[in-house]
Design goal:
By secondary structure, the chain is α+β, with helices and mostly antiparallel strands. It has helices spanning 33-45, 82-96, 111-127, 133-143, 185-193, 200-207, 213-233, 244-250, and strands spanning 8-13, 17-22, 25-30, 53-57, 60-64, 153-155, 164-167, 170-174, 181-183. It contains 8 helices and 9 strands. Residues 40-208 form the Aminoglycoside phosphotransferase domain.
Length: 252
């Protein structure tokens, strides 16, 4: 019989990658070595708490677990004090003010290409009957605010609320850096508060308020529109309460 702690937990698994947890070690299986290279590089450069890279043997990357707990999850109840959210905002600001990394990340996509991708995705959502046309059209208009020139920053690129850990009011670790690189800092802020709009003010207390809220709203709509079909095709539920489709409905 296996001893306690020997169990393997499947954290996430789909056709692109899988993450397993064994005790205090996470094993990330990814055949895209460029993505793994980006993660290892970002972890080494980021001026915020990150997991330790333990070893790497393609296609597997082993990293340490980080202490603490998240402030919630998409579709779940947000937790943590306003001070904890402010601490997360301060850590994100520290990342954004760091020297630029060499790579362009997920948050640094060309706005012309992104607009074309968005239009294609909106058409597919309506054509396939996945979302009503008025919901898609309204959010496409809101998303336009995100498609503007921006000054590049060191961005995480996938800064979901589940990727930032805290103990009390202190950030103890930020995980999953495979999409990191030069990009639009407001993309990170929008990703972190997706589905938790009510905590944006708390986050900005620590981050700073010199941002355009219309751009944040634009990224909420844009990110949600782009990912609904992918989530549906890969076994996730964007229609669950508080998730991407509810984010789109909130803009109505």
């Amino acid at each position: 019989m296996d001893e306690p702690g020997d169990e393997i937990e499947v954290v996430v698994a789909h056709s692109e990658r899988a993450t397993l947890r064994v005790g205090d070690v996470f094993l990330k299986v990814d055949t895209d070595q460029a993505r793994v290279d980006a993660e290892v590089e970002a972890i080494s450069l980021a001026p915020v708490p990150t997991p330790r890279v333990l070893w790497r043997k393609p296609p597997v990357l082993a990293i340490s677990a980080v202490a603490g707990a998240t402030l919630g999850s998409l579709g779940g109840t947000s937790t943590g004090s306003p001070t904890a959210w402010a601490a997360a905002g301060a850590a994100i600001r520290k990342l954004h003010e760091a020297p630029l990394p060499p790579r362009t990340g997920q948050a640094g996509r060309n706005t012309v290409a992104l607009a074309a991708q968005l239009d294609k995705e909106c058409a597919a959502l309506v054509r396939g009957g996945l979302l009503p046309a008025d919901l898609v059209t309204r959010n496409r208009r809101v998303a336009e605010a995100a498609l503007r020139p921006w000054a590049p920053a060191f961005t995480h690129g996938d800064l979901q609320i589940a990727h930032v850990f805290l103990e009390g009011d202190e950030v103890t670790g930020i995980i999953d850096w495979s999409e990191a690189g030069r990009g639009d800092p407001l993309y990170d802020l929008a990703t972190f508060t997706l589905g938790h709009e009510e905590r944006l003010d708390d986050l900005l207390t620590g981050y700073g308020t010199d941002i355009d809220l219309d751009v944040i709203h634009g990224w909420w709509s844009l990110r949600s529109l782009l990912i609904v079909r992918w989530l549906s095709d890969h076994g996730f539920d964007p229609f669950a309460p508080g998730c991407e489709v509810d984010v789109l409905r909130s803009r109505m």
